[in-house]
## 1
Amino acid sequence: MPTPVEHRQVIVIGAGPAGSACAQRLAESGLDVLILERRTIVGNPAQCGECIPHWGEVVGTFKHLDDHSWLKTYFEFPQRLQLHRLDNMRVFLPSGKSYEFELDAFAGHRLQFDGYLADKAVQAGAELRVNTALKRIQHQSKTGRDVLVTSDGRFSCDFLIDASGSLAHVGRLRHGQDPVYRPEDQVPTTYAQVRGKVPETFDVFLGSVAPNGYAWIIPKGPDTANVGLGVRAGMLKGNVKEHLIKFCDDLNLEILSFGGGWIPMGGPVKRMVDGTTLAVGDAAGLVMPSNGGGISQAIISGCFAAEAIVNHLELGSPLSDYEAKVRASLGKALKNSLRTKNMGYAFFRGDFITETILRILGPIGGIKRAMECDRPLWIL
Ligand SMILES: Cc1cc2nc3c(=O)[nH]c(=O)nc-3n(C[C@H](O)[C@H](O)[C@H](O)COP(=O)(O)OP(=O)(O)OC[C@H]3O[C@@H](n4cnc5c(N)ncnc54)[C@H](O)[C@@H]3O)c2cc1C
């Protein structure tokens, strides 16, 4: 005898920043929202470099957000989450020469950050069920509805949010490998929590240390940091973790623990709205392809998806407004960032050529533009 199907107005798959922001915004508008999260503890294990943008960085990068009071308030994170200010970023060339830019961000523990966001969604009225993984989607012809089969019960809903991260579980279950719905160019990343003499700044290292990618040191306090490597799949000889250990050893940093994950670096999926399902955050491929940052886009897209559902119910506007709004706000920066990444893939072949190109681009602002997701300089 199959378990009964529990029907909810909105189901959100995943309690990352995208899912929690979306659920909070929906619950505040009076909708019935259930978040299903496969992990036992939200945010654990953390999969992040843990650089979290302030609102200044967000409005400086994306369009049409200045007057969005809900998002502006959402980005006012409590002091207890902000372990270390990240006012500057330094980009190191293979020779050790560096270029420095301003940044408006902070380092935090992603575990605490994700937990805080999920708590806010619950306080707003959303229900959160952990230990509940979406496993299958079955179409029920009798009701004309899809049934979400999870590790703990069966569900149906009026609206479904795919906030399941880089592997886009809803898109994958419905459409397999179809790139229209699946984020592409999944880049493997490994990081370590370290102790030792760490910089004040967010440091990025380019060249053979991380072929077609970069290594980072993100300080989290006076003697702790998150140190990681993201490398285009298949570009590194040997194991990414071994390279990270060597990188840390060379800097005399003691490794306390490891983490890692996949970052979708192929740009936005071609379709973010599939019937009454809306893909948000990494599941929609909204990570910056040139730097791997995705927290702010996850929150923004989660909020926009919620607003599209509310407007659909109240005003009858189409759900496709969601995708249009995401592209209007985030599209240009994501496109620039993708171009920069593709230029890196095409030209950064070995330390000599990487150094030469960056020595030309650095003094004329090319590296800064790349990191800030402005239009790349087409000097090559
Ligand atoms: C190593 C690494 C370093 C990074 N560093 C940074 C950084 O410093 N700054 C930055 O801005 N971005 C960074 N990113 C990117 C950033 O982590 C993501 O863009 C962001 O977490 C996306 O949020 P999300 O809510 O879309 O997805 P996620 O945070 O991935 O959340 C998805 C949630 O869905 C759950 N889930 C997945 N499948 C199912 C299922 N079948 N059923 C139920 N639940 C499910 C997961 O358990 C998870 O909780 C990094 C990513 C990685 C991997």
## 2
Amino acid sequence: MSHLRFLTSGESHGKALIGILEGIPSGLSLSEDDIDRDLKRRQGGYGRGARMKIESDHAEILSGVRSGKTIGSPITLLIENKDWKNWIDVMSVERRSPDAESEKITRPRPGHADLAGAIKYGTHDIRNILERSSARETAMRVALGAITKKFLSDFDVNIGSYVVQIGNVKIQNSKLKTQNSPNELLSLFKKAEDSPVRCSDKTVSEEMIKLIDRATKEGNSLGGIFEVFVTGVPVGLGSHIQWDKRLDGRLAQALMSIQAIKGIEVGFGFDMAKHFGSEVMDEIFYRASSKEQRAKGLHSQLPTSNSEFATGFYRKTNYAGGIEGGITNGMPIILRAAMKPIPTLKRPLRSIDIVTKEQVEAAYERSDICAVPAAGVIAEAMVALIIADAFLEKFGGDNIDETKRSYVSYVENIEKF
Ligand SMILES: Cc1cc2nc3c(=O)[nH]c(=O)nc-3n(C[C@H](O)[C@H](O)[C@H](O)COP(=O)(O)O)c2cc1C
């Protein structure tokens, strides 16, 4: 990241998670409620384990905000782990009691960092690895991402997600992949928010729930696919000039960094490979704005994908998912991510005890059955962090008014292009 940087720390059953975000301009209104809203969304979703019933995440702002506004200094957040009180001895910073010492985890779970991490960090207690590799850490990513969402919403940039597949149950409508206008995307998002599995289709949601129930009963787990979208992005974020400046690459890395995410698509993604070039490029059109539109400031309503109302340069399709040559093209950004099934299973998987070298059943830590709905919320946060970084790279500003001036002048110039 070039203008923003952030770090998270904290173990899954440690006292708390800490996050620091640096680079947000001063003058942005920010409250703990803005952050807690997304923390609550991350905790939800049908198929989560008992842990989420213990936690009721709340982010305390420790620095960087005064009188409800950011002051330009690093923003520090703290989220307490309510479960910590059940693990005080096991997670003690000081030497542990003999009882806790005997609770070492030596049976690595396939599909986790357990074995490779234990070898790499030279420990025979896998707890030292799983405490940090756990997706509990993503609560802090969601909290920091919520700050960047708040920043972006000042520029009418909105980010959302919805689940399109769990196991083999999926939404059939292929239009979902690329062709929706910002309003349609926001409406799918709203519908998904009312679904226990964060899917916009009621009937499909019910099928997904049935499948999760089946997996629960059978001691199994599930993965799935979700979409993340960004509306309101201006043309010109990211760049073609260097590999690490390409926005598609930056977004893919951010999404791939989420635990259990195994594949990313931008726009039409893998389906592009099955088509002729003539079928999946977004042709370019131009329509001059009318006098009335100009008077209302509606000329070149960038960004838009609603071709009916578009003026200036516009597209009728969005196979590219809003990014061409690593640069935003003004259409909504559409990303898809595939999550593997949760690797901790009640139905035991075979493993080897790292001390005795005997064939054993893998350790079982209290676990989710399906976390695809939550992963979508985490992905929104990661996407928000990357888009906010690219936004500040383009428009700069130590205070939000400066950023706004630069943004408005850029958009006015685009209109003259
Ligand atoms: C929101 C979320 C919740 C998760 N919950 C669990 C869980 O309860 N049990 C589990 O074994 N894995 C869970 N995972 C997946 C593991 O964290 C992940 O598979 C593991 O750390 C290995 O990383 P990798 O799959 O990226 O290789 C979860 C992932 C996410 C994103």
## 3
Amino acid sequence: MDASTPGGTERRMPGEAGLVFNVSMLLTETLGSRRRYELESAEFRYDEGRTPVEGSVRLTHTDGAILAEAWLTLEVEEICGRCLEPFEQALMVELQEEFWPGSHPLRREPEEIPDGREGFPITDSLLDLQEALRQYVEMNRPMQPICRPDCAGAGAATAPDAAAVTESTETPVDHRWAALEELRREVR
Ligand SMILES: [Zn+2]
């Protein structure tokens, strides 16, 4: 067993938000080898804070990389575009990304991501879904979040009052016009 990979197993690492997976063993196994994980107490970090993530993750050893597929649900905080109140927006994210080891598991020299392939790095045999998930969440967040389809907006309850205010302001406007007319007459 490789002494540089403590534990030397494919078990999911505890700690770090539950989105980190030790792939040291998987990388040494035959192509097509797979692991499937159900997330437990995983947390997603983003600008607005932390939020639980649920779902499953499948890791597959491909040619030199790990294909990560994940089916996740989480809620992120949004501000409603109508009533301007914060609310929890539920998101479903289907993630599919390749992760590349910084060095071959059996050799120690660094390895480049091949031309034409994209992906995220595997650091010290740890595959961390956090950054990939952050990008997917950003793509999936609504451009104009609405707390609920029938949200009438912040002004809804006070709309009649607003109309009344508009009407009542017409009189002062008239007064000002009158004053202006008076001024004009004086100028002439
Ligand atoms: Zn709203």
